[in-house]
Amino acid sequence: MKYKYKKSESLAISKVIIFILVILAIGLVLFYYYQEDIWNYIKNLPGYTVSENDTEVDYSQMKPDELAKFECTKVGNIVSRPQNQYFVSINNVETNLYLYLGPTILIRFATGGFFGEIINVGSIENRIIKINQEFLDKDSQVYLKYKDFLPSVGDLKIMNGAFLLGSNLLCKKEAQIEDLKTEAKCVDSCEIHNGVCKKFGYGEVILEGVFCKDGNLCFVKKVEEKKEDTDMLLSSFSYFDANQKISQDNSVEFEVGQVQSIGFSVLYPKYKEEGKKSFCYELRSNDKIFEIGYNNNLPENGVPKFFSMVFDEHQKFIEIAVWDPTTDPVQKVLKRVEVKTKLNSDFEGLTPASNEKFREEIIYDSEREFYVADVPFRFENGLVTSTYKIDKYPKKIEIYGYYKLKNEGKNSWHALDCYTGFIGFISVGINLDKIEPTLMETLIKNKCKLKYL
Hints:
Layout: H1 2-43, H2 64-67, E1 73-81, E2 85-90, E3 93-101, E4 105-110, E5 118-125, E6 128-131, H3 141-146, H4 153-159, E7 163-165, E8 169-172, H5 174-184, E9 196-198, E10 205-206, E11 217-220, E12 224-226, E13 228-229, E14 232-239, E15 251-255, E16 259-267, E17 279-285, E18 289-295, E19 305-310, E20 317-324, E21 331-342, E22 351-353, H6 358-363, E23 369-372, E24 377-378, E25 384-385, E26 388-392, E27 396-403, E28 412-417, E29 430-431, H7 439-445, E30 449-450
Parallel strand pairs: 15-21, 22-23
Antiparallel strand pairs: 1-2, 1-8, 2-3, 3-4, 4-5, 5-6, 7-8, 9-11, 10-11, 12-21, 13-14, 14-16, 16-19, 17-18, 17-20, 20-21, 23-26, 24-25, 26-27, 27-28, 27-29, 28-30
């Protein structure tokens, strides 16, 4: 029995050795044919250092057809500077963004000056660039605060999702490039809203901010609906606060100055199994765009998107328009609902003004009290307020936020404390020459904060 055991054990060991030799032989053959690609892959792993007897592949010198083998369309590169500094260049333009080489590679910029800040914009993880979401919105509070130090939002979107090839080349796949081109087509037009460009409209509403040729204006109906176009279906558009529904006459009632919640969903019945479809969307009123965007990664057909907003008494309707810019003619669905505003007593005697034309409307109008709605601003304690009252005086303005204190049962006006120079701890308002083009920029540049909590 003892002899037989040794013989079987020997046979098992022989089989293992033969198996290992076969694997090694296959590996050597594969390495012989693919050794260049294997070495290039190893050299481009994070942390790989080039030895004195080795050479690193310089992808930046390759032609586009050579880079295509690596699914790379060049969008930028990392520029080496003295003292081991590495700056980001996008489309051959060097930016203020640089790399911080730690356990995770961070993408940063410095504001400079004695009290300068160092701000993280994103990171490189597994050789993929991720830009923080707040820097991808041109109207975000964070982007507006630092926009003088940053590339354009368009360039940051080009960076976002790019991958690092070699030690210095920034690439995007062709599909990503096409996606950016599609997003660039999400441009507002009178046609998208079933409007007509003309000089006068009777019983219709002017859609402000939409370009028409020859000085014409875009006129639309106050109420309109187109729920289906080819394979696109607007499956829902609702006002969600307190379960209030859109009335049968296609109208909805909002209270001025109060935060409201709106949602919509788009369904593609023919694409139900695929579950993904791209589209442009715009949520707006007659005089204000609340949200315009591009949805290229809908997680599931018919999943709703939600938005919060604040209405003023200028709004005559609320509309959602959704369209596919890749089709000819453009596939689109829309729903436009009349808005009936209830005036809150806190807003009596106040004149509505806009965020976008804030300086223009405040400076050149007579001395009076204004209010501006739907400008969400996050203060240092985390409180977000969206509605403001502006008291105008001969040489200054004072700004009040509309929010609720801990001991209050409802929102009311509370003065904001805005920095005014060396004696900024004394609340004396904002001088007229310190007013920025928009209210959001005015709050940021004058370092406004909550005076009462």
